[in-house]
Amino acid sequence: MRKYINMTFLIAAILLLFVIVAKIDVLPAIGDIDSAPALHVSKYYIEHSVQDTNSPNMVTAMIVDYRAFDTMFETTVMFLAGIGVIMILAGRPKAKNRIVQPKRYFGHRYKLGDPAYKTINKDVMITLIGPLILIYAFYVLFHGEVSLGGGFQSGALIALTYIIDILVIPDKKNLFMMTGKNSASIAGIGVLIYVMTGVVPMFNGGSFMDYTYLPIPVHAAERHAIGILLVEIGVTIGVMGTIITILNAIMKRVRFDDDTDKWTSGK
């Protein structure tokens, strides 16, 4: 009963928030070219982003330059989410006591002797696909400054490689392995790289996240580009480490048993 009461209050609060926002007309209409953001902020970004950030990608310039402080906290929140998962699952039963066994396969019940996969050899597929995804992840990372991509996408792709490598073929020699502590530490290192990229210019006469003051012996515009790349690398490491940390925390407490002979014969 208490659960339904809490849900009712939550829905009522959300509806009230929408009503208040609609009544006081705080936000500009979507697509309104005469709104303050369209007349001032957006116009400045369009006209000055390349000159200010030395990045031809306006989206990258906004995310890791104009609003780099905000993006830093987004990366930090992801890292804290991974730590939160570890803390929540700390007291849960271990994997040997929690086995997830699929009940159906392509709409049919498993039968003794059925192959786990009815497609081409999964070992060959993962061996081929894994390195290709990694190559694309690094392309997305280093190309994000000038085109589509960036640290969040790259980190997710690297973590995806780890996930399919561990879950699909758990018994073979994997491309890379991380324990829960190592992945959490790596995620923290990613956040640290981001923060230090912003702090170091302060010791060189600049302000926080002013990449122009990085102590690198190149042209000022190039220092700005290097600063953006360092931030993207930090985001990539942070996102990758966080996703793998969450996966490791779950895998310690849930075992995905793919041996059809064992669980169809009742062992």
TrEMBL record:
Pfam families: MbhE, MnhB. Residues 40-103 form the MrpA C-terminal/MbhE domain. The chain crosses the membrane at residues 72-91, 124-142, 148-170, 182-204, 224-247. It is found in: Cell membrane. This is Uncharacterized protein. InterPro entries: CPA3_antiporter_subunitB, MnhB, MrpA_C/MbhE. Belongs to the CPA3 antiporters (TC 2.A.63) subunit B family. Residues 124-244 form the Na+/H+ antiporter MnhB subunit-related protein domain. GO terms for cellular component: plasma membrane. Its main location: membrane. Keywords: Cell membrane, Membrane, Transmembrane, Transmembrane helix. It is a multi-pass membrane protein. It comes from the Bacteria.
